[in-house]
Amino acid sequence: KQEVTQIPAALSVPEGENLVLNCSFTDSAIYNLQWFRQDPGKGLTSLLLIQSSQREQTSGRLNASLDKSSGRSTLYIAASQPGDSATYLCALYGLSGGSNYKLTFGKGTLLTVNP
Amino acid sequence: DAGVTQSPTHLIKTRGQQVTLRCSPKSGHDTVSWYQQALGQGPQFIFQYYEEEERQRGNFPDRFSGHQFPNYSSELNVNALLLGDSALYLCASSLGWGRRAYEQYFGPGTRLTVT
């Protein structure tokens, strides 16, 4: 069974700081990995999608990496802003067993960027 | 181009009652997946519909059932509501099933409160 862990559970940083959010998973049989943003009580906004054959993806101030062999992904946010405050979720689209063809999510990291 | 829409936004029900939630997929998408997100947790996969059939199901009891219509919209029904069913219910749409359905677009969710 795929297990997805996100560390830290919560993070508070001053504005302008660069930061890294971590995601680890137990089953490397994945099709892709996706990072989402969720504002309080709202739906999910996709930030970056990395195919299993890729190593990283970039969008603006965001960079996500994927290392299937070690079961890890990181989301790097450069020059953080108060508007980045949200919960960030990591999700994997599986290819085997109970994770087949569906997204398995971590519990998320709650990010607060202080002005 | 309309994204994924869900109705209603909020709902309050009493234990033992039944509830129906609705979802319209993003234009051009034919697959709908439903997720339950309890407070402080990541979304959990409930089931997925493609060509009006349930294709995959997560670890949810039979009280949770669904339907997909010819226009690809979908309903989630929950019978005999329990307090533990209180959650944000998220609908996601994608194109195709299986490997093709890896990029999922999420709606804003329906907040269900069971008292």
Structure description:
The complex is a heterodimer of chains A (115) and B (115). Chain A has strands at residues 4-7, 10-14, 19-25, 30-38, 44-51, 56-59, 62-67, 72-77, 86-94, 103-105, 109-114. Chain A is mostly beta strands. In chain A, strands 2, 4, 5, 9, 10 and 11 form a six-stranded mixed beta sheet that branches. The model of chain A has no long low-confidence stretch (mean pLDDT 93). Chain B is mostly beta strands and 115 residues long. In chain B, 39% of the residues are buried. Chain B starts with a strand and ends with a strand. The interface between A and B is medium-sized, with 25 and 29 residues.
User: Could you spell the SSE succession of chain B in H and E letters?
Assistant: EEEEEEEEEEE
Count of individual helical segments of chain B: 0
* Structural class by secondary-structure content of chain B: mainly beta
Radius of gyration of chain B: 13 Å
Beta content of chain B: over 45%
The count of β-strands of chain B is 11
Shape of chain B: globular
The profile of the biggest β sheet of chain B is: 7 strands, mixed
Which regions of chain B contain 5 or more consecutive residues with pLDDT less than 50? none
Q: Give the largest interface pair and sizes.
A: A-B, 25 and 29 residues
- How many helix segments of chain A? 0
Mean pLDDT of chain A: 93
Record the SSE blueprint:
The complex is a heterodimer of chains A (115) and B (115).
Chain A: E1 4-7, E2 10-14, E3 19-25, E4 30-38, E5 44-51, E6 56-59, E7 62-67, E8 72-77, E9 86-94, E10 103-105, E11 109-114
Parallel strand pairs in A: 2-11
Antiparallel strand pairs in A: 1-3, 3-8, 4-5, 4-9, 6-7, 7-8, 9-10, 9-11
Chain B: E1 5-7, E2 10-13, E3 19-24, E4 31-37, E5 44-50, E6 53-57, E7 64-68, E8 74-78, E9 87-94, E10 105-106, E11 110-114
Parallel strand pairs in B: 2-11
Antiparallel strand pairs in B: 1-3, 3-8, 4-5, 4-9, 5-6, 7-8, 9-10, 9-11
